[in-house]
Every structure is written in C-alpha cells, then in structure tokens.
Amino acid sequence: MPSAEGVAVLADDPAATERCGAWFGTRLLPGDTVGLVGDLGAGKTTFVRGLGQGLGLFDPEAVASPTYLLVVEHEGRVPLVHADAYLPGKLAGFLDDGGLEYLLERRAAVVVEWADRIRNMLPENTLWIHLESLPQGGRRLTAVAADATAFPWLVELPKIWV
C-alpha cells in the first residue's frame, strides 16, 4: 500500500505525463475522485488528457483546461467529469448552488484541477496527485490516498515513466 508520503513517478516530458495519466485512467472506476495539485504549467491538463485515453473517452483529445467553464463532462467507457478550481470563488459559488452533487457524480470518474483550493468539499477518499516540475526538466507525480484500500493498484505504479 502507498505510504503517507505517497507513491512517486518521474515523467521525462509531456508525452510521458500523458502516458502516466492513461495508466491511471485504465484503473479508475465510476465514483472515484482525483484531486490534482501543482503549479501553473506542472502538467495537470496533460495528465487529464492521458487519463481520458485510459478511461476510454470517445474524444480524449477534446480534454482541455476547464478554467473558465468550471466543469466539463466527457462521455466514454467510464465518463469523466473534469473540473477546475483555479478560480475557487467562482467554483465554490457553483458548488454551493447545487453543483457539488453534479461534481461528485457517482456514474463518472471525477477529476479536479487545483483541487487543494476546495479540499474541504471533496470526498475523504479522494486520490491526490501532486505534479511538480523539476529543475532538470520533466515532472514528479506523487499519488497519495487517505484510504489506500480504495486504490490498491497504486502499488503497481512504475517508479519511472519514460
């Protein structure tokens, strides 16, 4: 099981980040929630595009940052609800007005970019993925689950993704 520090992988470039997302996507189930955390340009949307491939979205290339749309739904083998909390006040207003039920859709996998900004609104068993740009290039992706039994496949995560 993942430790409290999480399970980390290194991705050399955006294509590796996308492949890592696809690996996660093949394992996520309807009702799973993923919170993405990372600075601007850390690869959150690239990761989600790959995740969409793994989920079997009908058009994974349509995955783009939903910053101004707040929430976008993508259909596929496992549907994806993709939200963005970059503008937390705007998203919080949407969630307070009944959008939280929509965001936590149980028939879809839910992914929230900038999720740390609405941490208290997400389920306790959210899978947190921290993306960090490395000074030498590439990214470190660290996955942390409060309830490791909800994501037992995390121990299979390769340590280096090239």
Keywords:
single chain, 162 residues, alpha/beta, Rossmann fold, eight-stranded mixed beta sheet, 3 helices, 25% helix, 25% strand
Written account of the structure:
The chain is of the alpha/beta class and 162 residues long. The chain has helices at residues 14-25, 44-55, 88-103; strands at 7-11, 33-37, 71-74, 80-84, 109-113, 127-133, 139-145, 160-161. It has one domain (7-107, 114-161): 3-Layer(aba) Sandwich (Rossmann fold), CATH 3.40.50.300. The chain contains three helices and eight strands; from the N terminus they run E-H-E-H-E-E-H-E-E-E-E. An eight-stranded mixed beta sheet has the order 3-4-5-2-6-7-1-8, with helices on both faces. Helix 3 (88-103) links the parallel strand 4 and strand 5 (109-113). It is globular, with a radius of gyration of 14 Å. The mean pLDDT is 86.
Distance between the termini: 23 Å
Overall mean pLDDT stands at 86
CATH class equals: Alpha Beta
Q: Determine the CATH superfamily.
A: P-loop containing nucleotide triphosphate hydrolases
- What's the main sheet like? 8 strands, mixed
Number of helices: 3
Name the beta content range.
Answer: 15-25%
Rg over alpha carbons: 14 Å
Can you list the strand order of the major beta sheet? 3-4-5-2-6-7-1-8
CATH topology, by name, is Rossmann fold
